[in-house]
Amino acid sequence: MGFLGKIFGSTNKEEKTMSKLNIGIILGSTRDGRVSPQVGEWVKGIADKRGDANYEIVDIADFKLPFLGTTDGTEPGIAAWNEKLASLDGFVFIVQEYNHSITGALKNAIDFAREAWNNKAAGIVSYGSTGGARAAEHLRGIMGELLIADVRVHPTLSLFTDFENFSVFKPQDLHLDNVNAMLDQVVAWSGALKVLR
User: Fold this and answer.
1) CA angle centred on 166, ends 160 and 170, rounded to 5°
2) Which positions fall inside the NADPH-dependent FMN reductase-like domain (predicted)?
């Protein structure tokens, strides 16, 4: 970039794309028949229309993580998981509620990293019989310990009104504004926290 470009900002599309934040949409379930991929793709569809960051689905099932404490830590999925997290500036967790908390698979995946989470921002989209609110509150406590700044706006989806037969995701239109407001906060905070890293 030339001198004037440095002062007035580049108009080069490629440079603008490279300067965008990278936000991972983390699917928090690995079980057969899960609906988190449907919810994640819905969030990504909304996010991609914004053009304010690079959004990608990050499926913890793809990394085939062992259970923490049952491994010597040499499985390739562990390193790949940490590398993926390190490449991201912020997160949106797709969280389903199990027994008033997050899934064991999500907690296990979170615990397989530490520094890769630090000084980044995250939003939560949760679902369950009570909108997944209790799982989201548990996740907020975990994120605090990992220096993840969780944003306030929190879209909650009901198994009774946003899913057909509890399995086919059909979100109500009213959630669109909440998802966009949550993404506004995730992008703003992710950009601010990038300075700390």
Assistant:
1) 75
2) 22-149
3-state class percentages of the chain: helix first, strand second, coil last, to nearest 5: 45, 20, 35
Q: Is residue 15 part of a domain?
A: no
End-to-end CA distance of the chain: 24
Confidence band for 17, pLDDT divided at 50, 70 and 90: very low
SS3 string of 5-51? HHHHCCCCHHHHHHHCEEEEEEECCCCCCCCHHHHHHHHHHHHHHHC
Give pLDDT tens digits for 91-111.
999 999 999 999 999 999 999
Distance CA 85, CA 150 (A): 16
Domain span including residue 70: 22-194
